[in-house]
Amino acid sequence: MAYHQPPPQPYGAQQQQQVVVVNQPTSSRETGQPQNIRDWTTGICGCFEDCGGCLYGYFCMPCLLCTVAGQLSENCCVPICLGRMGIVAMRTKLRTQYGITGSICDDCCIVTCCDALAVCQMHRELKHLGR
Asked: Which InterPro entries match (predicted)?
């Protein structure tokens, strides 16, 4: 009976160890990101809950976009240069970081129909979160 033995290793050679991933993370608990656990603190038309923020957006939307981008650690160019798709990306980032319910499709529809209200809602949410 012959037994198969691995070839001898040269002196000082390190053995490599293979790691095989058997299970992928499937729940938010495993990935560390909260997913869809709460609603927005204000509705899309909740401008009367923060009149100052809405007036800020009404009179200088590019300034509000840069403020929101900065609060999300994004560059001002994201919403300014990419337009509505940049706003959708920031809205999706905000939702996923803070476990707000919704989907990318919802974000896209809301920003397409009422981008100014969506940005004001994001600003209110970030203010509520202390950012």
From this structure: PLAC_motif_containing
